[in-house]
Amino acid sequence: MPWKNQGGGPWGSGPKGPWGSGPQPVGPRPPDLEDLLRRGQDRLQQIMPGGHFSGIGITLIILLIIAFWLLSGFFRVQSEELGVVLRFGKHVRTVQPGLNYHLPYPIETVLLPKALRVNTISIGMTLIDDPARRSRSIRDVPEESLMLTGDENIVDVDFTVLWRIKPDGVGDFLFNIQNPEGTVKAVAESAMREVIGRSQIQPILTGARNVTEQGVQELIQRTLDSYGAGILVTQVQMQKVDPPAQVIDAFRDVQAARANQEQLQNEAQTYANQVVPQARGRAAQILQAAEGYREQAIAEAKGQSARFLKIYEEYKKAPDVTRERIYLETMERVLGGADKLVYDGGAAGQGVVPYLPLGELTTKRPPTSGQQQSSGGNR
Question: Which residue, of 160, 222, 277, 373, is most buried by count of CB atoms within 10 Å of its CB?
């Protein structure tokens, strides 16, 4: 018989050892496992029909367990989520937001990624929460934002990338990449450095932002697609594009000088565009006038030559008559518009002969106002 079952031992009564009393328990005594099992059996017998484990009771318990197991397959997908159903760890289907069902665990499980939410990643800057002012402040990250351009200038670029999960690429997003945000940030920074490295600094700072953003977005998308990431890049926004802070004042002076140069060049080009067409128009007008005069002179010369040949033909036929006719026509042209004085220069001439201006007498002159009044009174 063991010492603990005896009423007393060589060291006295009770659970004592050879060195006196054993360690006494401190605090509440832990529950007895056998006592708990006995109480559970008693309560289950009270619930079962007949007060003991019968075939009907066991069947009812099994049916309740199966019912709870089947009901555990219902799940809800929120508005920004997509449900990815896995059957023994393999992706079998994707479900839309709402109440859905899958075979209970361990046959099928579900993952709920935020596939419909647009995520934002900032590169070159960090947003810091300010609890005192209840606002956010922006802190530059030079190791991310300073980049080298194609013409060996340094530019400070802060930009954000907007991305979401492709509706048909949820499985790739869950199983092909381990850290989606870190992957997108690393790829975006690398793509921006590559595009900036192929560009000149002047277009980047002025009017080539849209082209740069589009090029960076396409390069990011191609890289992520090659990874099989299942990510869609929706937009790239360049927030700040400036030279480094140490040289920004000098760079702005250079920009102002270049702007003045371009303005003067534009003004000179405008003046040239105005003067050159006018000079060309005047030159064309002079050329056309000279061409017209040449054609007129040639035509008159040809006409006079033809007339001379005609007269010459007539002259050969009747020289006297032709000579007399030419003389009379010439005198008619010479004396046709002059005042006429007839002078008799013969031996018996009387000198100046009175001339009767028959042409002036035959010309009807309009009556004066006094003549009109006298004619009206005679009526």
Answer: 160
